[in-house]
Amino acid sequence: MKFAIQVNEGPYNHEASVSALNFTKAALEAGHEIFRVFFYHDGVNNGTRFTSPPQDDINIANSWSALADKHGLDLVVCVAAAQRRGIVDQGEQERQGKDGNNIAPGFRISGLGQLIEAGIQSERLVVFGD
Amino acid sequence: MSEIKKFMYINRKAPYGTIYAWESLEVVLIGAAFEQDVSVAFVDDGVYQLCKGQDTTGLGIKNFSATYRALGDYDVNKLYVEKESLDARGLTLDDLMPLKYEDENDDYAEKDSIRVVSSKELAEIFDQQEVLFNF
Question: Could you say which of A10, B13, B41, B63 would form a disulfide bridge with B56 (CB–CB 3.0 to 4.6 Å)?
Fold first, then answer.
């Protein structure tokens, strides 16, 4: 089956992000297709490479990046939500005149249309949130 | 992308206090450009999103309630409000903004977008949908 995943919460305050990560892994291992993972609301905070949790804790952003690298996942961070919360890639850095960027490998910043398209193109949209 | 799917946006949260309601409305507005068959549901504290007379002056944050009035112009005119959620909060249809749309299939007659439905009816409407966004 072709799934789209929406992640509405940040990496640690809520379990939603880890649940989405686990679901995505399990779906891929079971031979399903993940059309796209879309990060919205505080979910955009999953897409920073600057997190550094204690060593005995999961690094959720790194886990998403590793999964994207292994399976060619399309990890999309909503641009409007990202601008509110300071998630920046090279293009946004230049457009907004920021002194750096923090997007994690495997993530890209794009518009809400990517979420709607994922809903249209996939057989199931699975939303992880509060 | 000519395929038309039945999209349902489910709003469960109060308009202020968290950003879910406002960012949900942003998705609905962007999604309208994709010309899908769109419905929006308001349940639990989500019914407060449609209340008349919202005033955020004391909060110092944006009052976005007027934006709901634009939905009819985007052909988003199926707004389902759960009756049980209104009842539990002492609200009636009169407490909600009178949201309208022009029905192009009926000589552009002005009609109400808000439909108050029971929990059971709403469950049946959910069951007919293909894509459900939960906010």
Answer: B63
Please count the CA atoms within 13 angstroms of the CA of B44 that sit on its side-chain side.
9
Q: What is the pLDDT of residues A79-98, one digit of tens each?
A: 999 999 999 999 999 999 99
Identify the CATH homologous superfamily for domain B6-134. Answer: DsrEFH-like (3.40.1260.10)
Q: How far apart are CA A75 and CA A5, in angstroms?
A: 10
DSSP classification of residue B46: G
Q: Measure the CA–CA gap between B71 and B79, rounded to whole angstroms.
A: 9
Residue B2: both structure tokens together: 């000519």
Is A92 within 8 Å of A74 (Cβ atoms)?
no
pLDDT tens across A43-69, in order?
A: 999 999 999 999 999 999 999 999 999
Amino acid at B132: L
Q: Which chain A residues have any C-beta within 8 angstroms of a chain B C-beta?
A: 6, 8, 40-41, 80-81, 84, 111-113, 115-117, 119-120, 125, 127, 129-130
Largest CA distance in chain A: 44
pTM across the whole model: 0.92
Asked if residue B103 has pLDDT above 90, the reply is yes
- The secondary structure of residue B134, as a DSSP letter, is E
Structure tokens at B33: 């450009």
Amino acid of residue A99 = D
First to last CA, chain A: 25
Q: Decide yes or no: CATH 3.40.1260.10 for domain A2-128.
A: yes
What is the least distance, in Å, from the CA of B58 to any CA of chain A?
A: 22
Domain boundaries, chain A: 2-128
